[in-house]
Each structure stands twice: as C-alpha cells, then as structure tokens.
Design a protein that fits this description.
Blueprint: E1 3-9, E2 13-20, E3 25-32, E4 44-45, H1 47-65, E5 72-79, E6 85-87, E7 97-98, H2 106-115, H3 118-125, H4 134-144, E8 154-156, H5 158-167, E9 171-173, H6 174-180, E10 183-184, E11 189-190, H7 192-197, E12 207-209, E13 214-217, H8 220-226, E14 233-235, E15 238-239, H9 240-248, E16 255-260, E17 264-268, E18 280-283, E19 290-296, H10 300-310, H11 322-331, E20 341-343, E21 361-363, H12 371-395, E22 402-406, H13 413-423, E23 427-431, H14 436-447, E24 462-467, H15 474-498
Parallel strand pairs: 1-5, 5-15, 9-12, 16-22, 22-23
Antiparallel strand pairs: 1-2, 2-3, 4-7, 6-8, 10-11, 13-14, 16-17, 17-19, 18-19, 20-21, 23-24
Helix pairs in contact: 2-4, 9-14, 11-12, 12-13
Length: about 500
Amino acid sequence: MSCVLGLDIGTTSTIGILIDLSGATRALASRPVTLHHPHPGWAEENPRQWWENVCSLVPELLAGAGIDAAQVKAVGVAGMLPAVVLLDGDGELLRNSIQQSDGRCGEEVAELRAERDAGEFVRHTGNGINQQLVAAKLRWIERHEPQLFPRIATVFGSYDYIGWRLTGARRIEHNWALEAGFIELARHRIDPGLVALAHLRAEQLPRLAASHEVVGTVSAEAAAATGLLAGTPVVAGAADLVASAFAAGIAKPGDALVKLGGSGDVLMSSDRAAPDARLFLDYHLVPGLYLPNGCMACSGSLLNWFAANFGRGADQSGQRSRHASLDALAAAVAPGSEGVRALPYFLGEKTPIHDPAARGTFTGLSLSHGLGHVWRSLLEGVAFGVRHHFDVFAEMGMKPTRMLASDGGAASDVWLQIIADVLQQPIARLEGHPGSCLGAAWLAAMGTGLARDWQGVSAYVRESGQVEPIAANAPACDRAYAEYRSLYETLRPWFAVASRP
C-alpha cells in the first residue's frame, strides 16, 4: 500500500494525515501549538515547536496506519499565510515567527501607503497595502529590533520553514510570495522593486516555487528526526486556506467556503484574478483558477479564549464540552442576542476593513443579559464578518452558487444556523474534512505523479447535510448586522486614538 503524508502547520495545532490513493484516510493526528501575545495586537509562535510537532506526529501516524516509512511516497505541507520566519546565515532562527494575524505594524503600513499609490499597488500585486504585507512586518523589525535586522539571511513562511527542515532546500511557495506582496501578478514573478520595499536584498528571498513542485527529498537528518525515509519527495506546499478550500471541493467559479478555524476564512473560486484592496488574492491549487478571499483575524481562537476565561459556569457536569454547553445557552436566545453586539476584532482585523487598531467590544449589555447572550453575540459577530465579505464579493460582481462550511466551527449546529440565517443562504457542512492537511497530501500526490486528477481529492470528503436559513429570522439578523457595521464605524476614530503609544 502506498500513502502520501500531509502536514498542516496551523495557528492552534499541527495536524498530520496519511491517506492512500483509493480514497481512504489511514491515520490522523495533531499536536497543540502555543500562540503568544506578548503585547496587545501581537501574535507570535515558535517555529521550533512546529518542527517538534512534526517529529512526534510522523511516528504516531505510521503506527496508526500500520505501515512503515517506505510506504510513504510523498510529503506535502500546508501552513499559515503569510507568517514570517527569519533565519540567519547559519540557518538558526532569529526570533519567533510573526503571525499573519499580527497587528503591530500599523505605522509601517501607513508609510507604505504614503510611498505607493494604493490603486496601482493592487493592480500590480493583486493585493492591497495592509498589515498582511511582509514588507510592513520587516520594516517594523528594522525599526524596533535593529540589532536583529542585519542578521537576516532568509525570509520565508511557515510551511516553507518545515519544507526546509525536511529537505534542506530553501524555497518560497508562490501564494506566500503573492500575499506577502512580492509578486508582479501579470508576469508571475518576484519583482525586485517590491522586495526593495521590505528593505531586503534579492538573495534574502529563496527561489519561487509552484505549490505542486517537488523542491527536494527528505534528508538523512530529517529522516532520523521524523522516522520518514530519506529520499522521500517533498513538494513546495500550500497556504492553509487554499489547501483547505481545495480539499473541500471549491473547484468551480461560484463555489464558496466558510472556514471556521482559529481565524475565519471566506473564499470563492474564480476564473479571474479580480484584485480588490479589501480582500486577499491567492492562486488556486488547480492551475488557471484563483481564490479571492478574506481572513478575519479571530474566529475559533476568540471563542476558545472566551470559553477558557468566562465559560466555566456553562458546564458543571463535565459531560459536554464547554463550547457545546455555551451553544445550548445561545440557542435559547433570540436572533440579535436581545441587543448585545460583539465586534470580534480581538487581534485587530484583517479583511475587509484592514484595521490593526480595531479591538474587540461588547455593547448593549444590561443586568437582564446572561452568558448565553454574550456567547451568541460572539457567534453572530463572526457571522456578520462573514456577511461583510460576501457583500464585498457582490460588489465585485461575484455571487456564491454553492456554499460549504469546514473546520472545527462547522461542527456547531447553532453557529451554522446563525450563519445561514445571517446570509439567508443554505450552507452545507462537510464530513470527513480534516482541514488543510488533506489538501497538502493530495498536492503531494499530484506533484509526484502518484495521482493525475485534481478532483480526486473529493473521494475523501463528503457533504453531511445542509443547513437551511430560517426566513423568519432574516429581519432580526438584518437589523443586527446593520448595527454591527455602524458600531465599527462609530468606534473607528476611538480605536485609532486608543492604539497610539
């Protein structure tokens, strides 16, 4: 039996999967990841922990599948986009990664906006000038960590780093480079002028690679650390959101995915690039397609934070998960949370407002409200963020024809019903979708010729029912959504003032 290994270097966990080529998942395992917030709006992780997780996951997966390393024929890695990982000339990490959700570089974003015309930049790069840009993060390091900046020899992302640890080859996958702001979209090449905006030299960026390109093979050192067989091919990999959408079956123009992981991603397949400053643009794994998308900095990570800190009273019996207990309380509350509104901007916000100064808020609370109202307001807040993205898609002339939900949040019946009601559109839950690791595994199969059909990944995932919107809930949801949008606009000037040192 031949298998392929997929790894996902996620914000809250590292996940590994072994699949065979007949449509069967042979083993699945995960390890937690620590997300550090040393200051408000900051988000960092230790890449060494990612690698340690990989080294412990692989033996567990092999044992779980009942196979030996020789039966693993290829490896693919997905990961957060665009996390920033820095190495010195000896290949040593210089600092923790700066995560994609990090919001520290507002001043540097303002500098870039002053230097480049915003409209021209979007047309040239496919993405806007915002806190996602690696140039802004590197300028922050240059300003605040001047002793470190001159020592930078390599800049790449989360899955690029794991690919390097596996093979010794330094590459940057093209979606990391695209969202980082280094690619000239029309010619699909690294633009030296864009690299210069980051105050980098060309040699500090590794060579560009397509997602399915084999970039190397597992080295003897990595084989000893992981239990993989030396010489096993490794492909360049993929952005987690792209790999997840691909594995979910988002393949035709109009297919849309709401990905409810640690962050919240909203993606739609398109046969045109459609750059828009409010969103991000990625290449689809299927050649010739694109994935315009948005990412909310907080989704599942916000709910995890709230449940850990304030949800203890929701589950005294210990027989149900804290989230499920809180969902039960929220289900008893009417749509609109009886006037309680939550802005889910607890790490600033990325798309579509691109405001690193934004902060999480609760408004409308009174002594008549309880835990269920607050929890429902958080579920609704993220759902309103999803709707905001689809409003932007509509303004771009793109409407969803099929909508799917994936990742951990999709297991919540209450949350999916809220999202369906807020959008007034059916949304199907995916069953058997383990997330980005599956897309990474099939990418490895395609890149090495073990598989020939991009759509073959659909054998591993299926829809498990569709949540229909409740028409009677639409007026309350519409009012609450309008208040949500208005609340941010009202508070935006205060956010800007409050974020100043």
